[in-house]
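pinging the channel bc i need a second pair of eyes. not urgent but kinda urgent?? the chain im working w is below, pasted from the shared doc
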Amino acid sequence: MAAQAHSRNHGIDLLRCLSMFFVVLLHVLKWGEGGNLDNSFLGTPNYAVSWYLELSAYCAVNCFALITGYVGVNVPYRISRFINLWFQVFFYTAGITFLFKWLVPGSVSFKGMIQAFFPVLRLAYWYFTAYAVLFCFIPFLNPAIRSLSRESARWLCLLVLIVFSLFSTISGYGNWLSQGGYSAIWLVCLYVVGGCLGHFQLWSTLKRPALYYVLCCILPTAGVIALGYLPLNPGIAEKLFVSYTAPFCCLSSCFLLMAGARMRISSGTAIRLISFFAPLSFAVYLIHNNPLIWQNIIKARFAELQACPWYFTAAGALGASLGIYLACSLIDYVRSGLFRLLHIRELSLKLEGTLLKLKEWILRLIPL
């Protein structure tokens, strides 16, 4: 969802693909009674493996917001990008809703059909609604970030992590300030951090960021398992480690961003594959995370993995996630072809021009 730079960093594009794969993996592991974590038991290898995979993937959403800031801070702001994205979201919300209304009688209410036409206002996807709010403020955030000194940028990133991550975790309240990461406030925080990392190349001298990422996955996994043996409230471990705002999750996403940004990919085949899948990544989220898809197709499909040896459990979760990722990507490839035939990008540019004229009219009408 980040703006596109003129000179592409294929490592960042690869991170987009990996992050979306992680999002799917999170849902395979956690979703309802069909998730691995809800059917595993403390003290078993499957429990440890499932939690390691969960905490390795938990930084995925943070990575997307960091990438948006990292790439977008130095790219011209274009409303047409959001409009084109809105058309994509509308295509899937309305399309999937009417498809189920036709194929699965009784699965969609009249209210659900109406909500499909308002994906932002009706919170069809929490991330897209939060991103819509963030997008409104990007033209003000970018010059503010670029105007900072390098020292101020470092201090700002540190303050964001202290206030919105560390203090949020210590408070014990998941809704403290940033709603546990499910909010526009948290996306703005991550955009600012990503923008500072990108514009000032902070942490550019950090060696082996991928190793630090692995450590930030192992340590919380050990913490979750250890706390499971203590006579404490079961929710404490998740408050400390399983949250978008948790310190380990924030650090792992930053380390993964640094690893992706420094990756140099020279293989032509790899570049072609990454260039094919990266633009399709957001649709993977839109399709597989649609409530109707989850309720009727994905829910309760993966519980049996916990009855297998731990290596089959891990391979099954990873394989199922990869299958969902590839299937959704191929669906969106068809959608992208349809959008080209319908000239949706050109329509987005025309609507952008109309909105800019409306903005000028409003500013003349209401002088401040």
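so Confidence is low (pLDDT under 50) at residues 1-6. and The two ends are 33 Å apart (CA to CA). — does that match what u expected or am i reading it wrong
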